[in-house]
């Protein structure tokens, strides 16, 4: 079997976000998180629910498994029974996410997607992030606008939780006293210095940083032959 690609390490890192989640709704956004969620469902998270993004619960092969009317979807969103993995145009050390604008919101340099559902997602159910191009433009000291709510703005939010941030360089969490971002794992071939250089704030780095786990042979078969034979993952993280 050919060498494991960086994209496949990213898929595994995203899949691990749903380990032990039980019967909750996975809402991955992006090719790599979508492949990761389907991989989790087919291996260690068989109770995970997948959706087509509209009103249907689907199996990993895309066939219909059940019906999820919008009212029920909202009940899951606001009750902590969904784990969404979103993108971020900016993210800061406390996990605040920006997808709305770059610069002053009253007169931005660049208009982006808008706030959309980010506040509801982050305050009402676990939210992780997938960032395919780790850089100082994305990992910033302070976001220009808070869309997804970070730990320093989430006081009293019952279901607020940011399990992990996955980038093309590594995996990050907030297991620190002040809930600042921590380097939890490096993808093989990446150094701590490389991550620090690409991050616009002081990242917490443990004395020993593990590597993202190696996908098993069975997992690689599922990713390459069953879930993503068209190699969509490589569009986000080129080989």
TrEMBL record:
Protein's organism: Streptomyces vulcanius
Cite the source lineage. Answer: Bacteria, Bacillati, Actinomycetota, Actinomycetes, Kitasatosporales
Query: Sorted alphabetically, which Gene3D superfamilies does this protein's record hold?
Result: Glutaconate Coenzyme A-transferase (3.40.1080.10)
UniProt name for this protein: CoA-transferase subunit beta
Q: Spell out the family assignment given in the record's similarity comment.
A: Belongs to the 3-oxoacid CoA-transferase subunit B family.
Q: Where does the source fall among the domains of life?
A: Bacteria
């Amino acid at each position: 079997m050919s060498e494991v690609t960086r994209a496949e390490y990213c898929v595994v890192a995203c899949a691990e976000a749903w380990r032990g989640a039980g019967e909750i709704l996975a809402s991955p956004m992006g090719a790599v998180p979508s492949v990761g969620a389907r991989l989790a469902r087919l291996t260690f998270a068989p109770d995970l629910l997948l959706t087509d993004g509209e009103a249907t619960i689907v199996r990993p092969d895309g066939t219909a498994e059940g019906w999820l009317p919008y009212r029920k979807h909202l009940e899951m969103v606001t009750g902590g029974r969904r784990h969404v993995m979103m993108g971020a145009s900016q993210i800061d050390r406390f996990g605040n996410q920006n997808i709305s604008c770059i610069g002053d919101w009253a007169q931005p340099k660049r208009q982006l997607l808008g706030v959309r559902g980010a506040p509801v997602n982050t305050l009402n159910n676990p939210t992780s992030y997938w960032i395919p191009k780790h850089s100082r433009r994305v990992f910033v000291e302070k976001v220009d606008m808070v869309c997804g709510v970070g730990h320093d703005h989430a006081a009293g939010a019952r279901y607020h939780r940011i399990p992990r941030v996955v980038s093309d360089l590594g995996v990050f969490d907030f297991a620190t006293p002040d809930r600042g971002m921590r380097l939890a794992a490096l993808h093989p071939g990446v150094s701590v210095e490389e991550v620090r250089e690409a991050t616009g704030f002081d990242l917490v780095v443990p004395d020993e940083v593990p590597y993202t786990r190696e996908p098993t042979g069975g997992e690689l078969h599922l990713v390459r032959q069953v879930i993503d034979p068209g190699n969509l993952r490589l569009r986000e993280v080129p080989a």
